[in-house]
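[Automated response] Your request has been received and processed.

Submitted sequence:
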Amino acid sequence: MPKLLSCELIAYVETTPLSRIIFMVLISAFVLVCLSFSGLGAGFALGPVAGFSDANVAGPIVANTTWTLAGSPYVVSADVLVIVDVSLTIEPGVVVRFANGTSIIVDGSLVARGNPSQMITFTSNASSPAPGDWGGIRTRTGGHIDEIDWVTIEYSSGGIQGSADSFNVSQCFFHQNNVGVSGSNVKLTYCTFEENVCGVDVTNLVITDSRFFGNANGIIGSGTVRNSNVWNNSAGGIIILGSVTDCSIYGNGGSGVSADSVTDCSAYDNVGYGISANSVINCLAFNNSGDGIIPNPKSTLPSSSVINCSVYDNEGNGIGGSGVVINCSISGNGSNGVVANQIFNSVIFDNKGVGTSLGSSGVVLSGCSIYSNLAGGVEIFPDREVGIPTASLEQTTIRDNLFGVLISCIPRGPNPNPRGQGRYVTISNCSITHNLQNGIMTDESGGVEIDLSLRVLNTTVDSNGKFGISLNTTVINPEDGVVYKAVYLPINEVSGCTISNNEVGALGHFGSVKGSNIINNSEIGLDVFSASGGINGNNIYRNGIYNIRNNILFGQDVNASQNWWGTTNRTLIEAYIYDYYEDYNLSRVVVEPFLTSPIPEFPLAPAAPSGFPIEPIYLYILTALAIIITVGAVAFIVRRKKKPPEEAKSPQI
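Generated structure:
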């Protein structure tokens, strides 16, 4: 300072009382600042001063404190501790930068309330920030976050870490953290999680109206997720114990969603399965690389069900291993349509595997339509344990598959049940038609006798490529000598059925065959290996080679009385039966007494005259000839009447 100016200033201060006061205040402030920078002022708590930038904060906050926009940005140089019964409030627009590894620890309370135009930001102080640069915002027992709204949290290790006390997070953006939110008891609303290693890893979470994309894992933990979108996460979408409702889960590099229950959701284009849950209701699962829907083995629910869902074009099974499936549409999947124990009122079609694979206990298939499945219609794997209920297929249409119904008899361990315990596969009120191979069959996997039998009741088995029903021991095709191996699964009962237009109507060990219509099979109506209950009260006729071919050895005649054979001519009836009279090693088929007209329950073609059986084409030809002859005769008579009589000639004299 120039000498003249210094002298003038001193003279001014000495002569002016007010100036003396101002001068002393300035000197005192200068001394305090010097002390604080020299370290001699330790113990003084100085807040950031307006107009200064990059205010350092560290250590305990012992009194209610506000970090203001005017003091922003704040740099956390060491852990900040909000002690018990103390509150830290952060104003809208504040930026808080964290040095490496530092955190805010809340034993008291924290309020960080931004707004749409002034979001609060918690970020790294590194020049080249990366996930995990700083610790996070962590509450401990007794501490709580009163509110976090309109906040961005990025580049942290733990993001927000909750404790035993619940807190709300709303309208926040989590970006490139190791974990966006972790801990327990967190409610998230209208939040976005992008490019985190894990978006959320929380027990007892509630997530509503939020978005998760570009993370490794989207959501992990337990609780509920509602009305949220989870997509393009590289390792997986949602894995929780709890419920997921009204969500879209798609394009995830791992699987879509795993939960106890999933309702009103769409899961598609995921690399693994679409949905894994024990309760799935009103969902879409399609275009997933694995199965569309599978049970969750870690679920707290005791059994699995899939209701009112559409499951299609998945590369694996449509539904893989559910307990119960109700009112679903399953189509175009790369493997089986449905693997389940019970299926009701569902449509299953165009799958590359079988339509449905049923087993192993309490099997029911009811009210379904199963068609055009590449590897077959229905597989049944009966359980071999004592006391397992019988399998039931009812009121179901099975058509245009490789096969209709396959009852697997592959041994799966010890067989404790003695025969005759009343265990059945019952097929009733079904339509099994136009399948490429057989209508109903066993697998050809060995000669094992099992404790199970089949009942077919009030069912149509029509126009299948080979057998209508085929359940038997070894059979040799007489044309090419090929051995057809099947398993001894007895057909306990065939009743009220129509078995028609197959190559062979039914082949196997029969109990009873009654009240059925067995006609128009191109080779054989019934290929019989036993018939302990008799073959009675049926319409059996117009089968191409034999109405009945008997394979039972001599000594046990077959009771085949009270049937309509399409004729009353005994010679013609016998001509269509293969038994003792064609091979003396076989037993006889006893046909008398036989019916003289068809069973009235069946709308059959008119019976042929007793002279010889007449096919429909011949009836048409004979009818046409009769009409032609009748018309010709009438025309001749009319012409004859119109011609004038010739005059009588007088004898010549």
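Summary generated for your ticket: The mean pLDDT is 82. DSSP finds four helices and 60 strands in the chain.
If you did not submit this request, please reply to this message.
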